[in-house]
Amino acid sequence: MAALQDSGSKDPAAKRAGRGVGGEPKQKRARSIVVDTGGGGGSSAPATAPASESRAHPGSAAASLVDADALDCVVCYLPLKPPIFQCDVGHAVCSRCRDKLQATGKCPVCRAVAGRYRRCHVMEQLVESIRVPCAYAAHGCALRLVYYDQESHLLVCEHAPCHCPGEACSFVGSMAALLDHCSTAHKWPCITTVKPNDEDELTICLHDGFNFILADCSTDNKNQSSTASIQCLLLMTVARHPYARIISVHCIDPHAAGSGGQVATSKEMQCQLQYSLHKGSCSLSGNDPVIYNWQIQVSRFRVARTDLSNGLPKPDDCFQVVVPNSVIEDYDKDGIKVNVRIIIKE
Known about the structure:
This protein is mostly beta strands. It has helices at residues 12-16, 95-104, 121-129, 150-154, 175-184, and strands at residues 5-6, 33-35, 44-46, 63-65, 84-86, 92-94, 118-119, 131-133, 143-146, 162-163, 172-173, 190-191, 202-207, 209-220, 228-240, 244-252, 268-281, 291-306, 321-324, 335-345.
C-alpha cells in the first residue's frame, strides 16, 4: 500500500484560465504526489484496506507522479475520468472535450486529426486505480478517493473545517468538533436536542453573546411538492443595548466559500424569527376593565452562510432583529425566548 502525500495545491479555475483549444501549451506544474495504487473500483474507500485487497508487487511500496498534469485533460485541464479518449500521438482528452474537438478537426496539442480519437482503456484503468486522501484527513475524514472525484467530494465532506468565532481563538475543526470546542472551551450555549413543532418552528431561549443551535431545517423545492429537512448549525448572537436586544443569525457552513476552485453552494437560507409578548390581567368585578397586552414581532430575512475563516461578519453587513426592552417580559431579562423557523430554498 503506497503512502499518500500532496506537496502542492491545485486550482482548476486557474488551470482553465491558462489556455483554450488551440492555444499555447500551459506550463507543467512542478509538483509531486505519491499515489495509492491499491485496487478496487468506486469513488471512495476506507483509509486502510486489508492486505488481500492490495496487489502491489513486492518491493514497490509507492509510485511517484512528478507531473500531475498527466492525469488531466489537455483541453479543459480537469481530472480525466472515463470514458477517456486519445489522439494518434497519445494526448488524452475527456469525453466532453472529444465531442467539441470533432468540430475543430484537430488535436490542440499535436494538430493530429481529431476525428481519429479512440478510447484509451489503459488510461481509464490508471485513473480508476489511483487513490488520494481527502484534503480534510487531518480533521477526521478517512476516505481514499479516486483522483478525479476528490474535488466534488470536498464540497460535501462532513469533515470540512469551520473556524471558532472567538477573536483570540485559532481553533479549526469539523462542525461536530467546533460544537464540542465551543461548549467545553468557551462555555457558550450549544443546543443540539431542539426539535421543531408541527409548524417547523424552534422555541429557543437565547442568552447574551453567542448561541449555537444544531437544528433540522426544512427545504423548499419549487419543482417538487414534498419537503425534506437537513441539519444546519446556526450561530445566533444577542447583543444587549441600553434600550433593546439586537439579534443576528448566521449559518456556519464549512462549504460556504467553495473548495478546490468549485463554486460555493447557491441554496438560499431564510429565517423567520418571532418574539411574542402576552401580558394581561382581569378582574371578576363587573365595573373593572380587562387589561391585556399582546404584541407579536415577526421578522423574515435572508441568512448568510459562513465558515468563519474571515472572522465573524460585521453586524452592519447582516440583518439585525431589534427587540425593545419595553416589550421584553420580566422572565426574559436573562434570556430571551424566541420562535425560529429556517427555510432553505432549492
